[in-house]
Each structure stands twice: as C-alpha cells, then as structure tokens.
Amino acid sequence: PVGAGHVIALRRSDGSEAWRYPLPDSAGIFGGTVNGGAVWQDRLIVGSAIGRASALRLVDGALLWEVTNDPHVTEYRARPVILDDVVVFARGDNVVEGRDARTGEQRWSMERPAGLSWPVAVGRYVYVMDGPISMIEADGTVAWKHGGVTFPGGGTSFFRGTVSSDGMIYTLGTTYLTPNEGTFVFALQPPVRP
Questions:
Q1: Is 6 left (phi over 0), alpha (psi -120 to 50) or beta?
Q2: 153 vs 77: CA distance, rounded Å
Q3: 61 — phi, psi (to 5°)?
Q4: Do 88 and 100 contact (CB within 8 A), yes or no?
Q5: 44, 59, 69, 134: which could form a disulfide with 74 (CB 3.0–4.6 Å)?
Q6: The whole model's pTM is what?
Q7: Which residues, 6+ apart, have CB-to-CB distance to 133 below 8 Å?
Q8: Could you give the CA distance from residue 104 to residue 46 in angstroms, rounded to a whole number?
Q9: Bridge partners of 172?
C-alpha cells in the first residue's frame, strides 16, 4: 500500500465501523501498514512499517502510547504477541524486543541472526524461529535455544513455525553443509514445557 493507512475497529454485531485511527504516512513509500495487532486488557497494540508501535484504547481508538524509531532502520511488520504484561515485537532490523504493555517502555531487546521472525506465544514463553529457535521468558531470559548455522560447521536454520499448547514446535528448517542438505518440516519437543 502507498500512503497513509488506518487501524479500523469493526463492530462484531453488524460489521459497521466503531472507530478509525489514522496511521502516519511514510512519504508515500510504505504507508502506515500494520500486520494485525495484539489485544492486552483495554488496548490494541500495533506496529507499523515506518518504525512506530502504538497502543490504542479498544473502546474508542484513542492513542494511549506510541514509540517512534528511525523508519529507515526499524519496522514492525510482524504481528506482536503478548506474554504476561509484555508485548513482544520482532523488528525489521533483526531485533526482538519486549515492551511494557501499559507504557510502551522497552524492557529488553536481543539481536537475532536472521531475517524477520514471527513470534509465537504459548504459556510462559515466546518462541522465536529465525535461525535458531529460542524460547524467551517475559523478562527476556532465553530458557532454551536450539539450532542455527555456524560456518564452517553447518547446521539447521529454522523459520516460520508454530507451537502447540503442549509445547511441540512445528517449523520449517533448512540444513546446510551436511550430507542431508535441504529444507524439511521439523517437529521438536523442547525439554522446557510451556
């Protein structure tokens, strides 16, 4: 999409518009596009392609907080997830960050080795699959990590997965520098349970 966009809330009963929040333009390049959002208590938390994360009040779309980053460095295209009172974003500059859902204040961040990841929240953990698979707690502690590629050693790089309620991870992975190179579907049961 080109130009500014909107976050629009529709009424469940009849699909009519309840409110609309205009997203700022990005000089006509990407607009204010978002990828879904996450609901926490009384708010919808969204990220945009121009480096902004915003919390909007569910009842009327009023802005509760906003974080602005350099749009040439950071984008919030992946849908955020909620873990306790932390909203977890995967940014376009290969950083996963945890922000306070009440205030937007950054609690933690960690660099990731691969491209855009899509976090998945199950139980007490956020799972990030973008190279290695990491299980991250609400305070940013990595509880378990698996995979990734090292050179010259090789290994498996994981991406685009999901997690069942019992903690089984289903993901795609590409194995490099081994006799069995290729892309496969993996089912992994970590020793840490959600």
A1: beta
A2: 32
A3: 80, 10
A4: no
A5: 69
A6: 0.86
A7: 127, 145, 146, 147, 158, 161, 169, 171, 188, 190
A8: 11
A9: 159, 185
E strands, 17-75, in order: 17-22, 38-40, 43-47, 52-57, 63-68
189: tokens are 């049961």
Residue owning tokens 């009424």: 11
What does the chain come to in residues? 194
**Pairwise CA distance, residues 86 & 161, whole Å:** 21
Query: In whole angstroms, what is the distance from residue 137 CA to residue 128 CA?
Result: 11
Per residue in 121-165, pLDDT tens? 999 999 999 889 999 999 999 999 999 887 787 889 998 899 999
Q: Which two tokens stand for residue 57?
A: 């009040």
- Nearest 5 degrees, angle CA 192-CA 82-CA 67? 130
Q: What is the pLDDT of residue 168?
A: 95
Interstrand relation of 169-176 and 6-10 (parallel, antiparallel or unpaired): unpaired
> Cis before residue 191, ω within 30 degrees of 0?
no
Give helix then strand counts, H and E, for the chain: 0, 16
